[in-house]
Automatic annotation (TrEMBL):
Reaction(s) catalysed by this chain's protein: Hydrolyzes free adenine bases from 7,8-dihydro-8-oxoguanine:adenine mismatched double-stranded DNA, leaving an apurinic site
Residue span(s) of domain HhH-GPD: 52-204
Family: Belongs to the Nth/MutY family.
Keywords, alphabetical: 4Fe-4S, DNA damage, DNA repair, Glycosidase, Hydrolase, Iron, Iron-sulfur, Metal-binding
Tree of life domain: Bacteria
Protein name, entry field: Adenine DNA glycosylase
Enzyme class: hydrolase
Obligatory cofactor(s): [4Fe-4S] cluster
Length: 305
């Protein structure tokens, strides 16, 4: 492999073949047996998993995913239910707006595509709640197409292996997208395997902390390791706090509404958090986001429309 430079998109075509085979071979031997990777998962199963896995560990997703697909095995099954049922079934996965977005996508798939998740990348991207990453992931993992799939794990692998830095930028950059496109194998099947394999490598080996370089299939050609694994010197990495935040209060309010069999009066919600200003702000945010529906008489429920 040639020496790395600070213009990774230019160097990528030379380095790509040296990355693809060892990472894909490693993946074939070490990939986790996850339900959305099995042939019977189908494109809907892949889409559901991609919504659930955003910012959420696999261990937390697995039981909810299984329950979701058992209840709603097709997009049309979910589309028939009120959006509040999607929020209820989401449980404590966090970021519950994803449940509403997935429900909206199921409605659009049912109405526009006869209930089948579209195969075309542009049509996937046009679905409500589907962004650049999710459209590429579904097209690649469900349909074996050639698209750059850039999640946090892949971005970290490319940052270290190719650009020689410990962590990628806080937000995806144009340079990262160019690099990912340059690294894509030309063959569609190989490209889709590369997308899955590089993601798994970041999840299991090239982790954010305590990376296992001794088990990495591309350790010998990793630019970061060759440089002596220099410490991150860019902008501070964003941390995720939870205790005491509005997110925690929102979660407590939603937990009460998920467990209720009918509308919940304001005094019941007031008991979930001691600080009235923060509690009111969190409840207003849930209403504004469409996750909670206010009713006359100071009652609240999960949304029906």
């Amino acid at each position: 492999m040639t020496a790395l430079t600070n213009t990774p998109e230019a160097a990528a075509p030379v380095q790509a073949p040296a990355l693809h085979s060892p990472v894909i071979d490693w993946f074939e031997d070490n990939a986790r047996d996850l339900p959305w990777r099995r042939p019977d998962a189908g494109s809907w199963g892949v889409m559901v998993s991609e919504f659930m896995l955003q910012q959420t560990p696999v261990a937390r997703v697995l039981p909810v995913y299984e329950q979701w697909l058992s209840r709603w095995p097709r997009p049309a099954d979910l589309a028939e239910e009120p959006p509040g049922e999607a929020v209820r079934a989401w449980g404590r996965l966090g970021y519950p707006r994803r449940a509403l977005r997935l429900h909206g996508a199921a409605l659009a798939i049912t109405e526009r595509h006869g209930g089948d998740v579209p195969t075309d990348h542009a049509q996937l991207l046009a679905l409500p709640g589907i962004g650049e990453y999710t459209a590429a992931a579904v097209a690649s993992f469900a349909y074996g197409q050639r698209h750059p799939v850039l999640d946090t794990n892949v971005r970290r692998v490319l940052a270290r292996a190719v650009t020689g830095v410990q962590y990628p930028p806080n937000a995806t950059t144009a340079a990262e997208r160019r690099l990912a496109r340059a690294l894509l194998p030309e063959d569609e099947r190989t490209a889709s395997r590369w997308a899955a394999a590089s993601m798994e490598l970041g999840a299991l080996i090239c982790t954010a902390k305590n990376e296992s370089c001794h088990r990495c299939p591309i350790a010998s050609s990793c630019a970061w390791r060759a440089a002596g694994k220099p410490q991150h010197d860019g902008p501070p990495r964003k941390g995720q706090t939870y205790a005491g935040t509005d997110r925690q209060v929102r979660g407590k309010l939603l937990a009460v509404l998920r467990e209720a069999h009918g509308p919940v009066p304001q005094p019941v919600l007031d008991r979930v958090w001691h600080e009235p200003v923060q509690r009111a702000r969190a409840l207003d945010g849930l209403v504004s986001d469409g996750l909670v529906e206010p009713l006359p008489g100071g009652l609240y429920r999960l949304p029906l429309t």
